Amino acid sequence: MTTNCTAVESNPSVGNKRPRSERMGVKVSVKWGKEMYKDLEVDTQEQPLAFKSLLFSLSGVPPERQKLMIKGALVGDTEWTPKTTPKEGATFMLMGSAEQLAVEPPKNLPKFLEDLPEAQQQHMETRAYGAGLQNLGNTCYMNSVLQCMYAVEPLREALKHYTPSAAAMGPTMDPITKLVVSAKSLMRVRVEG
Prior knowledge:
Elements: E1 2-4, E2 25-32, E3 35-43, H1 48-59, E4 67-70, E5 73-74, E6 91-95, H2 118-122, H3 140-151, H4 153-161, H5 175-192
Parallel strand pairs: 1-3, 2-6
Antiparallel strand pairs: 2-3, 4-5, 4-6
């Protein structure tokens, strides 16, 4: 994979005190494993650590773990030597491994209702909601939405007390009224069934 980029601003903590117009940069490439970063700008008037910071942002290899070489010479952190000062189009070789993010296992593992003993399952509040509708092959998503809706107590109470007007219950019942009446009926079946 090849990446083209230019250093927009260098790290001020590494000695970058001059305005951008006065900086002297050369375009170089850096090979790191299978990666090739092309057209990177190196300002040789800054410390090499500024360039290593750019490489860190691209590769994830922290500067203290970087081995940066050009023509067999190892580049230090504080100054460019005659052997390490790059010329236009030069290729650096970067060695080092990117930082691995430490992943900690969760301290409190989730407990699922079906993993609990039968005696504990009987006392769980969610037991009142039931298992939902019978899955007809492709109704699991609809079933999960209905279970979520049923878990909202204000919605259950509103449906329980909903009474449509006589005019709304006629032969030309609007779709919203049909939906609410059907939901009320479904909730009643879940409670009674």
